[in-house]
Amino acid sequence: MKPNYVKTANHQRFMDGLDALEERGADECRLLVVDGLPGLGKTTILSRWAADEKCIYLRAKTEWSSYWLLEELLTELRVHPPFGYAKRFNAAMKALGEQAHNAEITGRQFAVVIDEADHISRNGKLVETVRDLADIAGVPFVLVGMGRIRDNLARFPQVASRTSRFIRFEPADLKDVKFFLSEQCEVLVGDDLAKFIHKATGGFNREIREAIVAVERFGFLNPPSSPNYGLSLADMAGKHLINDRKSGQAIFVPGAA
User: Fold this and answer.
1) Are 68 and 192 in a shared domain?
2) Is the pLDDT of residue 86 over 90?
């Protein structure tokens, strides 16, 4: 499989959300919420963006406390966490301000990305800590979670009102699936097989990549009957493609329509 990063429609949704964050009307609206079902590329897209922009990327833990959050934040900021909540908070404010200033000088975007943020959204103290960090440091925070994060944050109006935009990641459409195949699959895939891959995977990135592995495994040993068209349904008929994400049952490629 080619190691190419695929800029899907979800990637563009996130970038549009960042643009909206930059154009926000109120200085305190520094929160961006990204949600969607597992397997839609949230972690891949957000971790890649954070690395490219030299931002802070954290993964929330089930037992996170505000004190633990500050410890991990300071560690990522390359600051030794002092003892005491107030000292840690003030150290974080200083380090975040310095990072934001450096990013502005070099023309980069700077933010703190917190993945698995559902753990935060259910905890009032953690939510308030994130709000304080974003407000006082003047640094955007991107909270990444699944479908319940919106409802959870709605319980805290003072935080919900500071959310610049909610971005929901959606399953890949056929255009995105074909883009995945062209960018990552080392075997040319015909339109009819691409359409079946879209249907079988439901547009979930994880399943699309699993399908690519199956296509490559077959295609490396069995050249397509029509080299210019690529592997077709007829070529792969009866071969295992992926397992259904809900039932776990094997999905096999049907014959030509």
Assistant:
1) no
2) yes
